[in-house]
User: Fold these one by one.
Assistant:
Number 1:
Amino acid sequence: MAKVKQQTEQTFLQDLLDFQGSLNGKSEFLDEVRLKGAEEVRNTPFPTKKLEDWKFISLRDLYRDSYELASNLEVDFPDFSEHFLPESKESRLVFINGSFSAEHSSTKALPEEVVIGNIANLAAEGNEQLKEHLHKHADFEDDVFTSFNSAFLEDGAFIYVPKDVTVEAPVHLLFIQTDADKNYFTTSRTVVVADEDSEITLVEDHIGLGDNKYFNLPVVELNLEDRSFVKHTKIQRDSFEAIHIARTAASVAQHANYESYTITRGAKLSRNEPRIFQMDEEVEFTVDGLVLIDGDQVSDTHSVMDHRFSHAESHQLHKCVINGKAHSVFNGKIYVQKDAQKIDSFQENRNLLLSRKGLVNTKPQLEIFADDVVCTHGATVGQLEEDELFYLKSRGLDEQQARELLIYAFALETIENITVDSVQELLVDEVHRYTERQLDSELTV
Amino acid sequence: MLEIKDLHVCVEEDGTEILKGVNLTINKGEIHAIMGPNGSGKSTLSKAVAGHEAYEVTQGDILFEGESILELEPEERAHLGVFLAFQYPVEVPGVTNKTLLRQAYNTIAREQGREELDPLQFEDYAKDKLDLIDMKEEFLDRSINAGFSGGEKKRNEIFQMAVLNPKLSFLDETDSGLDIDALKTVANGINQIADEDKAVCLVTHYQRILDYVTPDHVHVMIDGKIAKSGDKDLAVKLEEQGYDWLTDVASVSVNGEQ
Amino acid sequence: MSESEALESMVGGEYKYGFTTDVEYEDFPTGINEEIIREISRRKDEPEWVTEFRLEAFEKWKEMEEPDWPNVEYDRPDFDNIQYYSSTKKKDGKKKPESLDDVDPEILETYEKLGIPLEEQKQLQGIAVDAVFDSESIFTTFKEKLAEAGVIFCSISEAIQDHPELVKQYMGSVVPKGDNFYAALNSAVFSDGSFVYVPEDTVCPMELSTYFRINNMQSGQFERTLIICEDNSQVSYLEGCTAPMYQENQLHAAVVELVALEDAEIKYSTIQNWYSGDEEGNGGIFNFVTKRGHCRGDNSKISWTQVETGSAITWKYPSVILQGDNSTGEFYSVAVTNQRQQADTGTKMIHVGKNTKSTIISKGISAGESNNSYRGLVKISPRADGAQNYSVCDSMLIGQTCGAHTFPYIESANPTAKVEHEASTSRVGEEQIFYLQQRGMDEDDAISMIVNGFAKEVLQKLPMEFAVEADKLLGIKLEGSVG
């Protein structure tokens, strides 16, 4: 049995690596990254349930099919301008199936000093900033998915915000995945560098236009220099048949502040791995998340908050609503390394389990090697409070209205700090649609 | 009872000098008040007397009943009868007031050659003292300062002082953050404890507690030194005129030395 | 000797149980194979079904690998170099002592030194004691008095002889032979341990207690304890453990099984003070133990309370399977590690029945260069409607060179269940110490007081006489740990 499985992975891999060679030749720099990535992929086993970090979810759904390289496909797609954010009319980069779409993008609203563009073009131009930062901040040792992303690195977003520059308009990074006849895979890379005293707001937006199967493997690298401030909202609305495996790594320097909100709504199987590395004393970071799943969706968040120096304040509120046969997994690791004193770290995972067939696995985890710290974590699994429902019903709401309102209130806490108004609005709509969907008995079981 | 001679004290961590030559004598039966602006070194002085390890004595001496106590651990000073009511009383979850005080009382009694009390005797003894600060019996069974309001914490300090019956008490800003009723209760407690064999030193910002506890001596501390001493009228003058007139005097005298 | 003095000497003092008892042992080869297992069975005069039980377990064990997931590092024991059976030579060639006169006076003296006198006139009042020395139960006090109430309290070897139907029915029913690597090893070579049976509608009239002593340097200790509470019965049981100081590590791999039937209640307390090795981490006991309770009947309750201060490595998760509807599981733990000790301990609460409840209170204290991990699982199965769990795991660190780790696993598959977990980390603050010093306490007393306050919720769950002593033990364990 195990052998058969291994063969499947091998086939899956071999099929994919066949595409790899075809990408080379356009930029020597990218060729190098890719070759190294491919080499790592060959030498790193794909994870199985035997590994502690993968014990709760199965990747069989990923391994059993074969995939085409997205950029090899000819695709038609409808108008998707409804997904444009009004605040980002001229601060938007659009990628369709992983490839940059100049016609949908505009960066006019950004200050001139800011380097912004797609990786393929910048690499072809030999951009020095790109060379300096690409693949330098994704610190995922022995992670086959990061290597995989590198092996197929074709395009993605690059942003460099120089010293003392504040980017006012939120930058919308829109990743559109189209409907297609064949399964495809796409590996975008996003690199954001905020130099000293700079500030930027990012909206990373993954949208599936159809209900097809594809494998989306984005890697995001962020580097925050001294006193910089990056707000990062990630919205994942991939197709309900898609597989979404993402890596986000942020290095945070002195007095810098990284604030991230990840909203998971789409994909049949999704896995997010935010990792925050403290690079110096006196930093702040937030890694909040909201997961809304139903049907047979599986969502897994494995986060790492690595406190390596003294004086850090970190915050993680991860909320999940689970309905139908959906399965939610959370493993949040808080590390406080030796000599990292005066750390104030808060972590909480709250799960609302609404259905008989849903499943929740949670494992908040503290590993502390310094004594002068305040670290707390908590996890709860429960359903809507009967007395709250009763209270609302006594005020005249029917059962469904009352449930909707409570789910909505539960979810809202994680999104109310997002500062881009239209993003907040669209998420509020998303929460509404999710709760309304719960009327559908097939989804809720 | 207490004699402080030319005391210089630094913060151990960064070497900043806070006390720059303090001289002070407190005799038994006396009530002293040390006043002064923020950062003048009032709290440091009380901590140095109690033996806090974050403060290093670089020069001078502290004599208690004629003997230097500089080399003594904080608990050894407590055994001799030195008590400090903390400006910010520390919380110790899970340990009741009763547990702490009985152990503390008996340790000090043992060191001073007095009789120790068994749990029942101690409970009776402690209950009497509760009246001084107008607290209920359950106060004894609450965890030390955990979940106490600011006023309760301050009253708890006075209660502990009453139970341990020290010879010399430094009360570090025990009056701050109290409303008028609590202030009266605390002052009343102090008055009842103080007698001709004991000495009390109030470290305070405001003159207001001195309306209820009458000091024999008032000292003003400025920039790590006692800039002026006097009787209770000095406190009144400070209340009316602030510290500025003294700051000038101090700087003049410093300049004069140069 | 008064009870509290006895108990004080049982847990108190810096490690003062490090002495060895000079006794003569029967010859027994080291190593493990089928023949050895048959020989253990033969020497213990066991019926065929027990030999079979052992051999089946051995077959499973051979196929298993030592788990590597605990957060502990150690050199794997050399299983060929362990003596799996250790029996002192008996007078007149008797198999087991019939009265105290048959017990080696050296061993009697050992227990006396440990504060557990076995002679009738000195016995602890109100507590029945089973004294286990290396692999054998030496003597059980108050047997007759307990028998009057219908309670069976004896060594498991005796129970196999005298109550085979009970042992056959329950042994291995909570911790199956092949449950895990060390449980399988224990099932193959188990030596002795305690057996308790409380019949229906009976409240056991006294505290039961087993005192485990490892003496033989080469032998491992593989005791097996089985406690059965029939419908509507109750028992409170306590175990204590000490061992001599050797430079080498000794393996202690026990299995404890508890069965609570309808409306029954079992309270199991442990004060574990095995030798923990020296400052450099040499020697000490490897404490790899499988403890599990099964709330089989409705409204039953199993409560584990543990104070873990000893052992070089502690690796155990006293668990409760909450099968009966409305059953309750509790786990109260204080684990202290100092010097180079490593502890990976916690619990599993498996909710199967409806309206089952569990509570977990874990207090970990790390000092020196030690590492202290809480690992727990709360699992709510799909049909456990209305199940509730509440967990609190607090860690306290003393000093800059130790580590505290929290690994709580929660799995819920029932929407009507409610699970709450919270954890925090705190420290013994300098200001706290100064405050207590100012009130007259020396530094060690101050730390002891702060730590005891931290662990209070758990210490309160111990039988009263033991709580006082556990208090002292914590203080002693941490003496001098703040520089």
Number 2:
Amino acid sequence: MPSHDVMPNMELYQPVQVEDALAIADRLADRGWLVGGGQDTYGWLKDRAKETDAMIDLSAIESLRGVRETADGIEIGALTTLTEVANNSVIQDKFSLLSQAAGVVASPQIRNIGTLGGNVSQDVRCWYYRRGLSCYRAGGNLCYADTPQGMNREHSLFETSRCVAASPSDTAPALVALDATMVIRSVDGERTLAAQDYFVGPANDIESTTALRTGEILTTVRIPNTWANATFYFEKVADRNVWDFSLVNVAAAFKVSGGNVEDSRIVCGAVQCTPRRVTNVENAIRGQAKNAATAESVAAMATDGARALAHNGFKIPLMQNLVKRAISA
Amino acid sequence: MNSKLTRRRFIKGVIFSGAAATTGTGMYLAANAQSGQSAAERLVTLNINGRNRPVDVLPSETLAYTLRYKLDMTGTKIGCNRGECGACTVLIEGVPNYSCSVLTHNVKGKAVISIEGVKAADGTLHAVQQAFIAENSPQCGFCTPGQVMSAVALLNNNPRPTRSEAIDAMSGNLCRCGAYEHYINGVMRASGQLA
């Protein structure tokens, strides 16, 4: 496959108001491609693995940037950069889980331009799909990764359905753990989705990783005070500490009283197409001491139902160990 | 037709690939979002190293491409062209970014500093450049312009970083010769913490 240094020629829209962006997205429909920081987009277009007639660059819409405190939590504009999310003092004070997750995405330069909305809406990182092969996710009728010769070290353990690609996002598990709400707008109005429902697996929609429909824009992420100042644990394991996507990550929040877990959220990333909440572990540790013994007793449950592919079996003990460390930390 | 679509608003730019460059220099265009037949504006003025440079920019052109092939500023290197190496790092409003992964149309009205703009007006090298020479930081040198830009950005914000802070700040710049320790030594020397 040829490599290209430049993107093909196309139209570029740079609205500065969200209403204009919505009107353009509605009018262009499938001909338009929403761009936040562009760090996922440009590779697709340079590689000619996907194409579009027009880019709708959202980065100049100031109203979609920044962090605001509200009566019952915070609101983060979807175009807020990952660096801003990582360094924002309010997020650091109340939801350091998200600061940590945003602070380990890719590299400093990518975090300086990559946005929170883009990080949770980026496409899966399957090498076959990204090379433009006609796989299930690209509209074809086979999977190149889940074959005896397929390279699937980075792929999913759970809830595969024809496609076995995994969610690459570091911030998505943190948002699910924090019970965040995604605010989605279109020319027809606004709707909200729980973070967990924003992410869509291949059984429900094999061509999209999010619930965004044509013409819709993710404008805001709301985080309620439910988990403010809880005991947090985030860890990302990747081949290199910079650039590489998670092999497995864990984002966890615990409400601890007298050394016992009152309630918790434990969410793993990069083990399926969406962030995976391990509710069986959350239920098992409720009321138990938050310590190494409890962690040891429930760690194996974290991977109940896992189906390893040819080369990603290492993710099973890795995921168990990350869950164990989250609980015992 | 939805009434919202008929409203005329100012939008930052609508750039159509097929249209020829026009003579206007205004950044803001009145555009009719309904028809999409607004004037193209490919001729933009960029603020590069403190100078205003008029240039004809395609809609999907990256800043690295514009710098190297339209403005003849070839100090900025294109390594991977995918945001995975850091050789093309420039400062946009003082913030290090991969110029291969930024649209040129995104830096309209923003101050861009490339490696050519780091030295003083009289040609004196920047403290980072001098320190990199003193520490033999570059080997082949291809990643060096990007390394300089990341180091300059760090020291502008944090004149006396710890070694660990320097490693974090330089972590988005790959060096295939593996001269990382020499670059970090250079950063520490430039910050006056290494005699």
